[in-house]
Amino acid sequence: MAVFKLYAIRTTEGALEGFFIENRSGSCIYTPGKRRKIMKTIVRSALIAALAISFAACTTTTTNVNMPASNANANAAKSTAAAPTKDSLLALDKQANDAYFKHDTKFFEGFLNDKFTGFGETGRWARDSVLKEIANHKCVIKDDFKLEDPQMTMVGSDVVVLVYKATFDGTCEGQKVASPVRAASVFVRKGDKWLGAYHSETAIVDPKAPPPAKAPDKKPADTKTSESKPANTTESKPAADPMTDALMAIEKSGWEAWKARDAKKLEEVTTKDITFVDEFGNATADKASTIKAWTEPKCDIKSVGVTDGSSISVTSDVSILTFKGTPDGTCDGGKLGSVWGATIYMKEGDTWKASFIVELPA
């Protein structure tokens, strides 16, 4: 006895367009002519017999390229998140900011990726530590904050980086929050959602007149963090990842190339779409401007150190490395201090390359 599976194909309005039929031999699409009316009280056995005849006439390897995308094969269809846009991601981060200020941990439990990392008021984050910060922060921020000037970069097909300028008015722990800041968020596609995989904020300041070092301050976390002050706080690293040592070796080679103004090496260890946010909140928009910023003769670097590395695998070909960078030297005549950094690495063939880098004062 022939056994086959039958699936109805409907338009987005619910109208019946035809049937998808599958058995051991293959599958096909059966679509009645536009002029043929399908009676509402059709006898089931007659319908199945008719479809069986139609199936017999189908080639066993038929693929219907004309099938509407909205009526994807019910046997294999999976709900996936829509392609991101700058505006849609900025709206998502605004929603997260609102939730952070309101201590809405429930929102973040559904929004944060399991391996979320970043930098905030309490230092380097893991998912559990940022949820704790959201629940307990002492920040009071006015509702009229602004998120603007978004810049979006895809890293592979399922990871996207969003960089934007944020302006806040309020306090955390009684201290006025840094504003404006350059925020960086990384999102990963999970089914029908874009989840937060990383977030940090860097205060936008004049490199020649940086603010003096100060005690704990700043602003909120996850979609709310500013120039974080991990020093004198308890940080929380993500679980150890086997990629950390390999990525740290690449990171160190990049820092050595920066010290030597070795543009060729910097080209080799970065992707074609590399973008960068420096410790003063300045952002580059493409590879040419990034390499130029790294090789301009405005810095005199004697030595560099890259330590305290920790990484997470976001997808099979994208990882996030967080670390501490310590340069000994000056830029624009000002002495450089230590920074916390995060690099988004993407695998191209067998080689891991930096696709996005963000720094903030340590």
The helix/strand order is EEEHHHEEHEEEEEEEHHEHEEEEE
Q: Which structural class fits the helix and strand makeup? A: alpha+beta
Question: Radius of gyration from the CA trace?
Answer: 26 Å
- The shape, in one word, is globular
Instruction: Report the top-level CATH class of the largest domain.
Output: Alpha Beta
**In this structure, how is the largest beta sheet organized?**
6 strands, mixed
The share of residues in helices is 10-25%
Annotated CATH topology of the largest domain: Nuclear Transport Factor 2, Chain: A
What would your notes on this structure say?
Strand 2 (16-23) and strand 3 (26-30) form a beta hairpin. The chain folds into 3 domains: 4-71, no CATH class; 86-203, Nuclear Transport Factor 2, Chain: A (Roll), CATH 3.10.450.50; 244-361, Nuclear Transport Factor 2, Chain: A, CATH 3.10.450. The chain is built from 7 helices and 18 strands. Mean pLDDT is 81; it is low at 34-77 and 214-234. It has helices spanning 44-56, 86-101, 105-111, 127-136, 244-260, 263-268, 287-295; strands spanning 4-10, 16-23, 26-30, 112-120, 123-126, 139-141, 146-154, 159-167, 170-172, 175-176, 181-190, 193-203, 270-277, 299-315, 318-331, 334-335, 339-348, 351-361. 22% of the residues lie in helices and 39% in strands. A 6-stranded mixed beta sheet has the order 5-4-12-11-8-7. Strands 13, 14, 15, 16, 17 and 18 form a 6-stranded mixed beta sheet that branches. The chain has a 3-stranded antiparallel beta sheet with strand order 1-2-3, with helices on one face. The chain starts with a strand and ends with a strand. With 362 residues, the protein is of the alpha+beta class.
